[in-house]
Request: fold
Amino acid sequence: MHFAPIHNTHYQIHNTMLQDHILCHYGEIALKGKNRNYFEWHLIENIKDRLDAFSPSSFEYVKKMSGGILIKLNEKGIANSSLIEDALQHTFGIVNFSFAASVEQDIEILKNTCWELIQNENFETFRVKTQRSNKLFPMTSEEINRKVGGFIFDKFEGKKSVSLKNADCECFIIIINKLALITLRKIQGPGGLPIGTGGKAMVLMSGGFDSPVAAWYLLKRGVSTRFAHFHSIPYTSRESLEKVTDLIKVLKKFKSSSVMYSIPFADVQKEIMMKCPASLRVILYRRMMMRIADVLAKKEKALALITGDSVGQVASQTLENILAVSQAATLPIFRPLIGMDKEEIMEKARQIGTYDISKLPHDDCCTRLMPKNPETRAKLPEVLEAEKALDIEKIIFETIQKTEKIMVN
Reply:
């Protein structure tokens, strides 16, 4: 799965000049003040991990530069540029990145290299934009822009025009250290913050559309995720478990954890069905899920639970029912999709690559033993009264004992 690239142009790049560097730019990391080094360090380590996962031993270094991160590719990395592009498009913290050709810091070389890159491209207007981090270079950014832009304009013999705003094609020149880097294209990254900067959370993961999208939004904020999946095997098929592992594989491209807890829930449901009012059954299912996930989260040193709830989407997601369910957990419960409708959630699922898996049919444990008329406006005192019929501590202990910890490969 690829994010759609953001092009500063409306054409495809055909030139095959050696592009041996990558410039990665971040956004809100630049606003972090005294904590900026912490976020930059995590981003650099995550980039290294992503490159090694997609294309091992493909780079010489990944290091800070003025306003971003600079990657130096080796021959293997240059050959595997499509894999590396995919890796960086899945690396949170990167707002955009560019493959760049490196040349000497000489104005004549800059003019000829830019012309070589741009001459076969399809556009009507262009501009040259320079960032000069090396202040020892004898020309200012504006002087470089004029010299290189004028050279290209003359080479086109009036067939192309210069536009300083909204140009079809932008030729970027970066003067940094002892290098000059030249690129024609910026590719969109996912933005957000580097994974590992926001703590850990436990995602209650079903096989539907909502929970993997909710997990993605937490990953985007730098939160490292663990997963808890409740199933009713053997009373339901293994399809939901297989779907969840496939969804986690997609999220792993964004550097999510591969840790998943497979939690048998059929006996819990049976106990609730036999001892509690039918109308409260779904609320009581979800309260037990929160308690069990709470225990497992603490084992993982996670600081929050994550669900895919959206107000009003199903009977258990009214504000009254959400309140009744939340009261059972000791950790905070985050619901990043709470104000989104189904179409918005499904569109995001398409973008991040989980849609085709989530749309496959499966048996959801929460739909098993559903009452005909579930409560939509649960009152907490009535819920607490109904739970007196259950040995909650025993149920949690026995369920945890039967839970399996899986590493999704």
Q: What stands out?
A: Confidence is low (pLDDT under 50) at residues 1-16.
